[in-house]
Amino acid sequence: MGERRGGGWASATMDLLRSEPMQLAQLIIPVESAHRTISYLGDLALFQFKDLNPEKSPFQRTYAAQVKRCGEMARKLRLFKEQMTKAGLSPSTRITRSSDIDLDNLEVKLGELEAELLEMNGNNEKLQRSYNELIEYKLVLQKAGEFFHSAQGNAAAQQREIEVQHIGEGSMDSPLLLEQEMTTDPLKQVKLGFVSGLVPRVKSMAFERILFRATRGNVFLKQAVVEDPVIDPVSVEKVDKNVFVIFYSGDRAKNKILKICDAFGANRYPFADDLGKQLQMITEVSGRLSELKTTIDAGLLHRNNLLQTIGYEYEQWNLQVKKQKSIYHTLNMLSFDVSKKCLVAEGWCPIFATNQIQNALQQATFDGNSQIGAIFQVLHTKESPPTYFRTNKFTSPFQEIVDAYGVAKYQEANPGVYTIITFPFLFAVMFGDWGHGICLLLATLYFIIREKKLSSQKLGDIIEMTFGGRYVILMMALFSIYTGLIYNEFFSVPFELFGPSAYGCRDPSCSDAYTVGLIKVRNTYPFGVDPKWHGTRSELPFLNSLKMKMSILLGVAQMNLGIILSYFNAKFYGDDINIWYQFVPQLIFLNSLFGYLSLLIIVKWCTGSQADLYHVMIYMFLSPTDDLGENQLFVGQKFFQLLLLLSALVAVPWMLFPKPFLLKKQNEERHQGKSYALLHSIDDPLEMESHHDSHGDEEFEFSEVFVHQLIHTIEFVLGAVSNTASYLRLWALSLAHSELSSVFYDKVLLLAWGFNNVIVLIIGIIVFVFATVGVLLVMETLSAFLHALRLHWVEFQNKFYQGDGYKFHPFSFALLGEEDE
Fold first, then answer.
1. pLDDT tens digits for 198-235?
2. What is the 3-state secondary structure (H, E, C) of 609-632?
3. CA 516 → CA 420, 508, 519, 521, distances in Å?
4. Among residues 1, 190, 323, 489, which one has the fewest Cβ atoms lying within 10 Å of its Cβ?
5. Distances (CA, A) of 314 to 86, 320, 393
6. pTM beyond 0.85
7. How far apart are CA 721 and CA 140, in angstroms?
8. Taking the chain, what is the end-to-end CA distance rounded to the nearest angstrom?
9. Is 710 left (phi over 0), alpha (psi -120 to 50) or beta?
10. Closest by alpha carbon to 590, among 570, 561, 548?
11. Tally of helices (H runs) and strands (E runs) in the chain
12. Is residue 525 helix, strand or coil?
């Protein structure tokens, strides 16, 4: 958001901890310069308008007609876009920065282009339909001609055979009926009619069956398959069809056949049984087809030229129509004062933007040649302002992570500042492997180097989401390399990067390494885990202990940070009750238990003590007065534990009881002070009414406040235990990642290497690469990301973050291009 704010960067320093100070402003704008003023404010993108006409429907507003006109123009532009897409054309992406196009001229021009395009489409559809009908007609002429030609040949052959038999001697075996047929008068023979056409192949069997049933078998149907699909003139889709010829006798049969043809969507075409006429019709149809083809091609060329002309200006027109529509939508939110010939606007803006908004108003007055200038004045209100953080492309995705949980209340402490470091760091604690970290780094560097090109392209959902969080992934990769160096893991393989290992064998042959173990022969390894730990029997217990204790330390540190931020919130809002009766007891309770555990961990690390911390913590509650014995880590530990336990027990009622009673007392004092009003306020009944309304809604319910505080106290006390345990996911996922990586390396790569076979080695490498990428770099990354997200949203932010604010959405033209149609 902050990237597009123009000159706003110079007037105030970026401060992500608190949202920008906002003000409610009123603009009084002359009608003649209102359109230009809103346009300039849209370019500035620093003013969020309030709707001053909520009771009016969209059709009752002042500029409803203009919005409707813009909607109609947008419909025409969508039509152009659809036609260009069908024609395989794409609009030109260049947007000429010319002066604003007049809306009336653009409306006329779009209307003319639409009429011309629709006329072309209509003519093309008619020509295409005629062309498809002629194609079908030509097929009917060819296939039906073959029927008649073969039938005539068969008839002639039968005639010759009969004549030969008739000339020969008549015998008792010669058929009598045949002789009767030959002697029948030609005038008394029945003349058969026929119908020809095409029927869809999928319907041909049903078509034949219905014909047979409807005419009781008194028809003769002949069908021929058309090899290639033909375009149906009605549906304009490619359909497999059969040519048919139906012979019938009588008008009743003909009427039935015609109705059945219509019902089955069969297209009928006239056909002459005379061979000469058939040839003549085929010639005529072929000539008409070639003429139509030429006409259609010319029409399509002309249409494509028109669409290309539209495509050059499409983006500019589309943006202009969107701008105008958004301007008139905004004008409809303003209050229209007929008597003063002016529009009144109210809205939120950052305080630092005051001068820029006033300059925009003056410029609009000057450019519009208005006699009266627009007036800018600040209004005082008790309404909560919107939250606005000026972010850049680096900080924006981290802020989005926080906003997904809830938008910060106005000027509430913003967790986004700390999330920039803590989120990728906690991810890296679970993902620590500097080999995998380098892979993530290379992938995100690709996105960062090509960000200008990729930002202007349409990416898939997953790729677009990854691209949007490229800087989050960059930080995750860098921290993963750092924690990987601490864990000393490169695809689970340790390296002596910072010097030789501190451990060695007593005997140079290392024959006693298995029985006696390694001894310390050099100074401690300078950075991270000593490489000799890897592969030993004690590796897992050692790393388990290390990572589990580290998880508790990190968790307690982050929860303490959350509680400290609640202090800064309370101090900022001047809420002393929350400081003394929420922040202080919460800090005491958490650190009396888990702060003490963290202290024990650090002392044990520093002294090398063998004390059992589980025993110490459990018996701190069960038997606080017993001697610690060998589990004592420092002098006075028993007394210190009793003091901490007592502090934790005192902190719970300290959190629960005082705050509700103090809030009740505070409320009673407020109402007692406001029961007396100044005399001059009685003169204005409206002021009295507003004064009454502003406090009448805030009725104090002690029972509700007490129950709320009880729930909050129980939640914190139980949450202190569960949240600390929740941070152990850092240990669990780190261990899982390390073990998976080790399994893939030992059981896939080294196993394949041991076969001394090139093919097996290649297969092993391929499996190792796919397993590493698919499981460790994709699934494990997503898993660690989600766990880090949960730790921030639940364990960290619930200590101080309310997140019940609402975002600052200024009127901005820059957002129009990002909106999906």
1. 999 999 899 999 998 888 888 888 888 888 888 888 88
2. CCCCHHHHHHHHHHCCCCCCHHHC
3. 47, 13, 9, 14
4. 190
5. 16, 10, 30
6. no
7. 86
8. 21
9. alpha
10. 561
11. 29, 13
12. coil
